[in-house]
Amino acid sequence: MGANRTPELAETAVPAGTGATSGMNAERRRVAFATLVGTTVEWYDFLVYAQIAALVFGELFFSGLGQWSQLTALATTGVSFIFRPLGAILSGYLGDRFGRRIVLVLTLGLMGLATTLVGLLPTAASIGIAAPILLIALRCLQGLSAGGEWGGAAMLAVEHAGPGRRGRMGAFPQMGMPLGMMLAIIVMAVVNAVVGKEAFDDWGWRIPFLLSVVLVLVGHFVRSRVAESPVFAQLEEAHATAKTPLRELVRHNFGTVLTAAGTVVGNMAAGYMIVGGFALAYSTKTHGLERNDVLVWLVAATAVWIACTYIGAWWSDRAGRPIVYRVGYTMLFVMLLPQFWLLSSGTLLGTGLAVVTLAIPLGLTYGPQSALFAEMFPAKIRLSGVSLAYAVGAVFGGAFAPTIAEALTKNFDSVMAVAPYLMVMALVSLGVAFLIPDRSKESLSSH
User: Fold this and answer.
1) Model confidence pLDDT, tens digit, residues 70-98
2) What's the rounded Cα separation, in Å, for the pair 346 and 231?
3) For residue 9, is it within any domain?
4) Which of 184, 298, 413, 434 sits at a 20 to 30 Å CA gap from 218?
5) Domain ranges, residue 168
6) Does some domain include residue 161?
């Protein structure tokens, strides 16, 4: 990753005003749009499950567990994370051997299939214990897909970036997560408003899952029109692709995998209070707030998250990635106690302010992630490295965060008990951020 490397194709200077410049800029726009659309669809599928599971799956699939039904339903959201490292390994192998584009197509198709089948699944009242088993199996398929999706999209975007724009280019797949969340919330709110709460809890919950078919077709069409990463093309031309990328990664860069994973655990844990369904379930079931009123505030929070994601990415191009992480995680640590005090108030305004302000440090620590991860790994094992690091961070950060939050709330009879847990996670990532050198000015070259 030294400065003596040959600049990769994506960062090769082209004289201003030439046709090559126009073509390159047009291709970058297509890549930015394709990675944004694809990750939005992928995260819509992944996150609509988390929200609906928090609302209705306890009663529909785990009612036999009594008081543990809600906790179990939230736990199924986390089970999928166990399969994300496997998805990361598989997609890393494919992406480092055969290119980034193939990963995007395969992961999107697998996620769409699993999500659609959830919408068609009979409940426990119809087929008994087979229902929760099939539900968990489909959630694991979603985890397998999610483990591979992010790395492929993020590296395709970053490796197409122009000089000094890796953070901003990498922000597009990053914005897909809150956009997917926003889309999931809007669809749920519309369906809930049209059919009513009783019908939604009975059968209307299936509609957001079934709509995935249309979204996946759109995402696949957009992604099929983008070019392969110029960095991977350069590797192929030089016959320098890794034959066994996972072996090389573990042998030479496993410490880097753990370091990169450490930068995201704080973001994942706190972020899943919003996207994992905890805030929605807590405010509606504990305090009796209207579902659609809370969903409106969650849409506002995701809008703030999107804006701060791009701001964080843009800032990281100017100031370096580590400084943005340090500021973001310091903000998160300081703000968590007041945010959970607001959430505990049980008022709609307090709940809204809690989730909206939480979105600010989440965006700052999410925006630079694609570029930061790309800069941490050599090109020939880059997709394997970033995918596995993200998956490991997700397992230790976000996997069971809603379940842990639910357990802490029940055990201490107060949602305030969740804040110290998240503060510890934020401190972990803040500490790791001080160990990372800034490589934003170095080349992503394979040589």
Assistant:
1) 788 878 877 888 888 888 888 888 878 77
2) 51
3) no
4) 298
5) 23-433
6) yes
